[in-house]
Structures are given as structure tokens and as C-alpha cells.
Amino acid sequence: PLARIPRVHISSDDGGGKEIELSDDPYDCMRLDVENVPCIVTLCKIGHRHVVDATLQEKACSVASLIISVTHKGIITCTRKVGRGSLDPESICEMTEAGKRVGKALHSPLMKLLQQEESLGKKRQKVGFLG
User: Fold this and answer.
1) 3-state DSSP call for residue 18?
2) For 95-108, how does the pLDDT look when each residue is reduced to its tens digit (9 = 90+)?
3) pTM of the model
């Protein structure tokens, strides 16, 4: 699957500086292959359990969180512990495995949505800078 970003043109002005121009044409885009881009999963430790993508109230009760980026093959590309509390080794292992499962599970539906969006072509609803 491919994602599109607006084409950017860089030109020099009279003073020798650089000027960045964004194309006004919503179909003048560069395509990026996003098949191997990782999904980011956040797991919050609450008591002896962990919650995936916690609500604000759940985050308020969390002592620490683990942020994991996971490819479609289940490869962890990055982890980061955030929060003031500590995570014991057993919790880290459990949270990492849960994050891998969730990240892998998210990839397929996300890629399908990108393919559906791509197949709409010019019929798709324009939002953001495309609108």
C-alpha cells in the first residue's frame, strides 16, 4: 500500500535563501511505500495489569507506560518507557508481547483502509490540505 504526501518544490529567492512551495493541486503528490512502517502501541501499567491505548482516566491511574513500535511482521523497532514509576522485568515482557500482538493485528486493517482510499481515486472525499 502507498500513502501520498503533497509534492514540495524548493526554489531560491533573489537573496540566496530557499523558498518552500507546496503544490496547490491535490493530485500532485508523492507516493510513499508504507508497508513496512511500524504501528505505535502504548501500554499503560495500572496495578498488576496493563491497558492498551488507555483513556485519560486510565492514564491518570498509571504508574508507567511502555510505547512500542511494531512492523507487520511483529518486529519491534523501538520501545520507550515513560512515566515516573518503574516496570518490573516480568511486566516489561508481558507488555512487550501484548504490544507485538496488537501492533501486528492493527497492520492488516490499516493497509486495507489505505488500499480502499487509493482505489477511490478522484472520487474520495477531500479533507485537510486537499479540501
Assistant:
1) strand
2) 999 999 999 999 98
3) 0.69
